[in-house]
Amino acid sequence: MNPLAWPDGLRGEMALPFSAWRVLDLIDGVRDAAEVARLAGLSAPELQRQLHEAQQWVARAQDQHRPLTAEVAQTITACLTQVVGPVAELMVDDVLEDLGDTAVMGSLVAGLAAELTPEQMGRFAQQLRARGLA
């Protein structure tokens, strides 16, 4: 019997979909995969899929806190340019100026999102996903 463990990097305060937490709450470091699957009402392959998805959510959450490099800022600017045009560079510069030394990828995206309409935000998010940033 090999007890299951949470995905690396997962913390209890991370925002994950309910379906992920429904399974992760059953992982206690004692139960094995078969027991967790049984308690969750899942097949073994479905449990593995849920754990894989949880790991992907954790990776995305960790990405939001990674330091903002010039390359990432440039990619975010390119994504935003696809949505709002050349004014994107000014928008990014303004948000970066407001953030100062505390800039991380997530805070830049959040600052930009506050200036976009819901339609623009949807298109911006789509651009970020296409480049693996969301």
TrEMBL record:
InterPro entries: DUF8082. It comes from the Bacteria. It comes from Deinococcus aerolatus. Residues 73-129 form the DUF8082 domain. Pfam families: DUF8082. This is DUF8082 domain-containing protein.
